[in-house]
Amino acid sequence: MILPVKNAIITSPYGYRKDPFGSDTKVFHDGIDFISSNNDRRIFSITKGIIVYDFDDYNHKFKNEKPNTGGNMVIVTSMIDDITYHIRYLHLLVNFVAKGQYINEGDYIGDYADVGISKGPHVHIDFYTSNWSKKIDPTPLFLKAGLLGG
């Protein structure tokens, strides 16, 4: 497992956070947001797997119509420690992969941008269980791989 961008900075971890759109309430953030410290917006696959969803014709900002709040996205089905996960990459400007394609860890899959509902260019990564019944906190998987401090 690797980080999705070079020179990664986490701009929003998994869990409750102050609402980025102005209210004083706390909202739940169901993934991890990454940017590159040197503005390299390329996204790399964090694992090997198969592309099961490829949406790449969305180009709007702050458009509140579902299901496109995440902008362009790619979903990869992958095995980590013999467990199947669906990993979503959101807020992409462009995707360079296609549904059904097998990818390796580190393959270039697209560029992140400020599309969908966002407060700036970033890639949002979230994980679902194999039957799509539950989103999980990906932080322990990144920690176990030695990719995050803590």
Residue stretches low in confidence (pLDDT < 50, at least 5 long) are none
Q: In CATH, what is the class?
A: Mainly Beta
Task: Give the percentage of residues in beta strands.
Answer: 35-45%
The value of Rg in angstroms is: 14 Å
DSSP E strands, number: 12
Largest sheet: number of strands, sense, barrel closure = 10 strands, antiparallel
Overview of this protein structure:
With 150 residues, the protein is mainly β. The protein has a single domain (8-144), classed as Glucose Permease (Domain IIA) (Distorted Sandwich). The chain has 1 helix and 12 strands; from the N terminus they run E-E-E-E-E-E-E-E-E-E-E-E-H. Strands 1, 4, 5, 6, 7, 8, 9, 10, 11 and 12 form a 10-stranded antiparallel β-sheet that branches. Strands 2-3 form a two-stranded antiparallel ribbon. Strand 2 (15-18) and strand 3 (26-29) form a beta hairpin. The longest helix has 6 residues, at 139-144. It is globular and about 40 Å long. It starts with 7 loop residues before the first strand and ends in a 6-residue tail after the last helix. The model has no long low-confidence stretch (mean pLDDT 88).
